[in-house]
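As promised in the previous annual report, we have extended the structural survey to additional targets. Below is the entry for Contactin-associated protein-like 5.
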Amino acid sequence: MDFLLHMITIYTLSILSGASAATLYNCNAPLASMLPGSSFQSSSQSSASSAASARLNTRDEAGGWSPVMSDRQPWLQVDLGERMEVTAVATQGRSNSQDWVSSYLLFYSDTGRAWKQHRQEDGGGRFVGNVNSEAVVHNKLSHSVRTRFLRFVPLDWSRSGWLGLRVEVYGCSFKSDVVGFDGGSSLLYRFNQKSMSTVKDVISLRFKSRQAEGVLLHGEGQRGDYITLELHKGKLDLHLNLDDSRLRLSSSPVAVTVGSLLDDQHWHSVLIERFNRQVNLTVDSHTQHFQTKGEGHSLDVDYELSFGGIPLPGKPGTFLRKNFQGCMENLYYNGINIIDLAKRRKPQIHSVGNVTFSCSQPQLGACTFLSSSSSFLLLPGAANTTGGFSVQFQFRTWNQDGLLFSVQLNPEPQRLELQITKSRLLLTLNSPGQRKSKLSVGDRVNDGLWHSVSVDTRQLQITLTVDNEPASTTPLWEQLESRGNFYFGGCSSTDCLTSAPVFQGCMQLIFINSQPVDLNHVQQGILGNYNELQFDMCNIRDRCLPNLCEHGGRCSQSWSSFSCDCSGTGYSGATCHSSLYEASCEAYRLTGSSSGFYSIDPDGSGPMGSTLVYCNMTEEKVWTVLSHNNTAPVRVQGSSLHKPHIMKFNYSASAEQIQAIITRSEHCQQEVVYNCRKSRLFNTK
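The corresponding structure token record, generated without further manual editing, is:
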């Protein structure tokens, strides 16, 4: 049996991206040793130590940094003065002491408000520290980070002493061109000719935003070509169409999605590489390889490419889609530095709206509820002379259930609770001797996106609103009054009257009676109380990226774990790895099966998947029969050497599966029946 194997050519494109630039030149200079003492800050410091003495190998009287014993969340922070490329860190204990840190976490931030944890390639975040006070332990980062602030958060420390730390940071400076978009602005790069036709494109940029929606770039042509890169639900979508409508070919546009949780106010790198119909889309360290549909090989864009939005022609300030709101950095289109051209006011660049060459977006201070059993945030109620109260906040989580908010009411023991129940919001008013009042709104609020929620008990009614959905209300017989404290997440053991699991996730923009809550005051002990919280960060992770579920298994997740739904895949196990089917007809015969149709998996748990075959169990041999779509007789007339008759066969298995089945077989044959009249099969005498 002969097989025609189509050769697939893969074109590999490469450019010097910012993420890998540090590996191509010397970027390991010490950055902290020359900083002034004011560049070192800490959560607290003991009377015998000083954060200003936390440089590596310092041997002054303080000898390094140690927090006070009562510090609940100790940290040491380094301000590099400007954004630098950081490639490694090093730690030491406090000199002439028994104080050191044996493991720690590393966080980074541009502003010192919104922090992000650095994780190594394996997803782990714990760094190995010291075993004594003098030895220096270096840790190279698996990927460099560009940041101004670094924060060392100790996890374990000396058993014979206390926590002590001296640090060094290694890296280098880097070139950065930045542009800011306010949600109503864009940059237009106009071509020198009417249309730009390219068979190869390389577009690279870095961006950061706190919005989950927004167009980063767009271009289109009159023949139907277009390219659009946009944020959608916190992920990055690339829409690319190379459809030459003059050929009248059916070509569906390609939409590829990469990344997750990209609205986290931190920088993310994007690289688009295209050669003909072969495309690579890379976001941070995740790459999707795909091929555009249709027969077009070039991208024809008319007049201009827009960055930050899609302006409506002839209507300045009007846009077709939601604009990008945030910052872009080092934006290159086929080697052209777009931001540099804009800063130099070159005629190829046209600005729409308020475009700035800085990144001054306000940083929202979020907090993370770490524990599903003991995390809580207690806040006192603000004064409200109108009666009743109102609470607004934003949250994001993966968990289907969790207590978000609760408050005890007068007269006792009334209680108002807002919780996530089966991915919906449920507000319950518990009044003794009366039927519970309940309101339910929202759908799939555990999708990892930010959701806004508002609870208002004024005007003798309870109003519950989530995002932009219509409000849900229920009347009250009397005005509700809080007993003073509002609990977010769980609550203290003395005040908890519910068995609901505690909220695990992030919150931000908390308002009580229309007054904003300063979470810095909570962290400093000035306001309220808390337990098992992380401040100035939303430490959410997408455990389904990359998707570890094999063979098309559907990944779902909670805050701390993920699971795979293997239904309909033909595989089982935690990650859909184990095949439900035997590898061959011979294996079915050994189980006592008779002739019939069976699904076989020729490579076991490999990537191919299963295919349906007919197993013919004879006394001598076991035959594996692969069917195709062309078994009926076909009448052939007028076939010649120069114009032969061609038939196409679509088998029930792919070419890879057929090859695997042949490899496992002792013998392979294919039958062709030829009936002729006044014709010859072979051109012989």
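The two ends are 27 Å apart (CA to CA). The helical segments are 18-21, 338-343, 519-523, 585-590, 655-664. These points will be discussed at the next consortium meeting with the crystallography subgroup.
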